[in-house]
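Quick bug: Amino acid ABC transporter membrane protein 2 (PAAT family) output formatted oddly.
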Amino acid sequence: MPRWVEPVASYVAQGLWTTLLLALVSVVASVLVGTVLGTLMTLPSVVVRGGIRVYVEVWRGLPIIITLFFIFFVLPVLGLDVNTFVAAAIGLTLWGSANVAEVVRGAVQSVPRGQSEAAAALGFPWPRRMRHVILPQATRRALPPLVGLVVNLVQQTSLAAVIGLLDILEASQRSIERLTLSGGETHAVPILGAVLVVFFVLCLPLTMLSRRLERVLR
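Here's what came back:
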């Protein structure tokens, strides 16, 4: 085994841990925030729906890379200092939660209106109707697109490298640069090939799960 492999593998492994942690935080935060927002978008209040719609359209419409730069460079100007990990997590959560909100809204509104009316006739207030009647049915409809969205969000974590976060991609790029400077050879193909394999291994099971859920729940 070439001498450069072990130190590079150790360094890239640190970046992989950061990528996995960032993906976990972003996915959990996006699902929680997006589910709440998507549910609130079905309220009769025009003000509530309008405010959330602005949030969804803004963060869905902006490229994630622009959002990351905005969080990382603009928040410190406003007196809010954030490190690269927090900035990346916030930026990805803004994009992810906006997309989750749209999925949840569509799933909730796809449940027959009679279900909500029947629950209301039994005296269920809106929160209990949502919790016990609507959301359990909407979850079945929302699961396949949500899993696909999770795959997309995991892939988008690689963009955190643009603000300097030492994720797996940034660690790989730095390793290539160091090898080029020290020995004149980049070894870019095996290093980036390993990164490709890692993302493939992470995302393939989720993609297969999404397809299976779509078939089962159809």
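Actually, after a second look the formatting is fine. The chain has one domain: 5-217. Closing.
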